[in-house]
Amino acid sequence: MAEPVRGAQLVSRVGRILKAVGEHPGGLSTAAAAHATGLTRPTTHRLLTSLAIEGFVDHDSANGRWFLGPELYLLGSLAADRYDITDAARESVRLLARETGESAFFSARRGSETVCLLREEGSFPVRSFVLREGVRFPLGVASAGLAILAYLPEEEVERHLASAALERQWGPQHATDALRARIAETRETGYAVNPALILEGSWGMGAAVFDAVGRPQWALSLTGIEPRFRPERRPELGRLLLEQAHEVSKRLGAGRPGAGR
């Protein structure tokens, strides 16, 4: 049984490294990749070198940074026909950015995380850069992940809160009781609010997008600076998010589940 365990561990490490590199479009040093994955620097370098031989990452020797490689592009192109649902959200993301002036996003749930798939800049000149394509957050941290988490079945919510240990990495504002309170608020209004819990001064709001069986699998969100998310403006932003989340759900063949979920 030892060999399968070692193989599974290797796959897990490779996955973590590829995700870390993918979150940094400007490239990632070996040391930074090791820090992001929790692996030692020698192990990280060996894995990156092996991945580069296969074309899964690319190394810029001039600045010592690693990038996603051409083989991943080819494989992604082949997988796109089955998994790419960004076309269903693109129009709504653009509308949200245009109507609000804020940065608008479309994110997908991947296990216990969300990953940003689309970003559209608004017209307001001061922006928040917490979120961009490829960035991942645990469910319950950013507004997109909070919106999704709030509409999962209660037993899934409790399992996530028990296992994710968000307080240790993200601070006391992500303690279980605080998260439960924000989940309750999200269920009450229909949309999630992140009051600068990731980066000081950077606010976010999100609404869940549902699949054909009524499960929250994606989210639309907005981010910007605190003065743009004053209490008197939030209901209007929330209304726009909910309207467009419903439109994207319909395009994906779903409708929002009934109240009391």
Automatic annotation (TrEMBL):
Occurrences of domain HTH iclR-type (ranges): 8-70
Keyword check for Transcription regulation: yes
InterPro entries: GAF-like_dom_sf (IPR029016), HTH_MetabolicPath_Reg (IPR050707), Tscrpt_reg_IclR_C (IPR014757), Tscrpt_reg_IclR_N (IPR005471), WH-like_DNA-bd_sf (IPR036388), WH_DNA-bd_sf (IPR036390)
Pfam family, one: HTH_IclR
Alphabetized UniProt keyword annotations: DNA-binding, Transcription, Transcription regulation
Cited SMART domains: HTH_ICLR (SM00346)
Keyword Nucleotidyltransferase set for record: no
Residues annotated as domain IclR-ED: 71-254
Protein name: IclR family transcriptional regulator
Species whose genome carries this gene: Herbiconiux gentiana
